[in-house]
Amino acid sequence: MVIGNGDRQPKEGVEMTDVGEVWIVGIGPGDPEYLTVKAMKLIEEADYVAGFKQALKVVENMIKGKALVMDYANEDEVLNFIASQERAGKKCVICCYGDPNFSDKQFVEKIKSMCKNVKVVPGISSVQVACAEAGLAMEESLFITFHKSGSIDEEKEELLRAVKEGRRSVIVLPRPWDFMPKDIARFLIDNGVSKDLEVMVFENLTLRGERAYVCKLSDLLSAEHGDLSIVILRGASRLNDVVLLNGSLRTRHANEMS
Asked: Which of 4, 22, 73, 96 could cross-link 100 (Cys pair, CB 3.0–4.6 Å)?
């Protein structure tokens, strides 16, 4: 799909050489206002911009080269094409939702195994947005992602251990096809975690239909959630200090908690 063909001169602040390059670019949680200036310039200057349909939709108005829509069926085909264009001296961008350093390790490693001159440009992750909404500091929390193929047994054990210790809040990215919030709740409850444990759930952050709420772990057993979900399990920071007001999360003042 050709989005446009313009005279693409490098802009100030973006290093483009005559050697082919592949940029893995984080495009934020979905709202274009969270795109970095660096990401926008790279996308505008690229000969090819690849990504899954949902990611490309965020940046479609910035693409002046050719857009390559990727899915799980044609992923290898698209990446092989990108690698061939890198060898031909083209500038290529592969868009990743959020920040590729948060939950795209396998995808990044795959690209690096197929292409030679690869650079990663961080973006704003939905995890960062969730922390901002919940008033959580990353250095006081534990982040566990299940966005990977293959076994997740080690991650599940790490999750169980951290929740039982209860020293830190645990931020979890579920696996869309087989370890969603209700599966996380079932796993934890079946392994001795209290069904009354308070959890916070975010869905579709920065997008239309976003929602956020606090509930008990057992409430997740019958709840359905989409792929863009984040679960935060209470640690040392009390989630019941956070309430939902007018569709947004706000922290109560101490005198309101008495």
From this structure: 96
